[in-house]
Amino acid sequence: MAIQDESLSGRLRQETLLARGRVYRFGKPTPLELLPIAGPGPEIWVKREDVSPIKAYKWRGACNRMAVLTPDESARGVVTASAGNHAQGVALAAKTLGIRARIYMPRSTPRVKQTAVMTHGGEFVEIRLAGDSYDEAVAAAKLDQAASGAVYV
Q: What angle do CA 73, 130, 93 make, to 5 degrees?
């Protein structure tokens, strides 16, 4: 069993390193910073997501997935649903990779989130407001995926 576990651990480490290489073509690694806390106690470190491309961690997953799209998948474009941070990650990857993306957002999504998505994605992104909740936006995105053949991210 130990050999199998080591093999799984090794593969996981390899996949993590490959993903890291893919992701950091879209933005720089975020630094760790030691919090200055007086007195005894453990050291507390924070990962500075506020200096990342979209100021949240979610961009990495979207960029990683889109970085491994096949040429056929890229040509079909992507579709997703998000109320904000994931959408910005998809938009960042869409513009960087030159892939068309349709992003479904609930109608209640604040204008500032919509603007951020368009800032990151530019001409490669189309926002479609659908439904009053995230679940309704997902349902609309899934219908689009089924009808268009786009890849759901």
A: 35
Q: List, for residues 26-55, the tens digit of each pLDDT value.
A: 888 889 999 998 888 899 999 998 888 888
Give the residue among 101, 148, 145 at the shortest CA–CA distance from 125. 101
Structure tokens at 56: 């949240």
Question: Collapsing DSSP states into helix, strand and coil, what is residue 33?
Answer: strand
Q: Quote the CA–CA distance of 21 and 11 in Å, as a whole number.
A: 15
CA atoms within 13 A on the CB side of 119: 11
Q: Confirm whether pTM is higher than 0.90.
A: no
- Domain segments of the chain as ranges: 57-152
Architecture of the domain defined by 57-152: 3-Layer(aba) Sandwich (3.40)
115 near 125, Cβ under 8 Å?
no
- In whole angstroms, what is the distance from residue 32 CA to residue 22 CA? 20
Calculate the dihedral angle through the C-alpha atoms of 105, 142, 90, 73, rounding to the nearest 10 degrees.
-150
Distance of CA 22 to the CA centre of its chain: 12
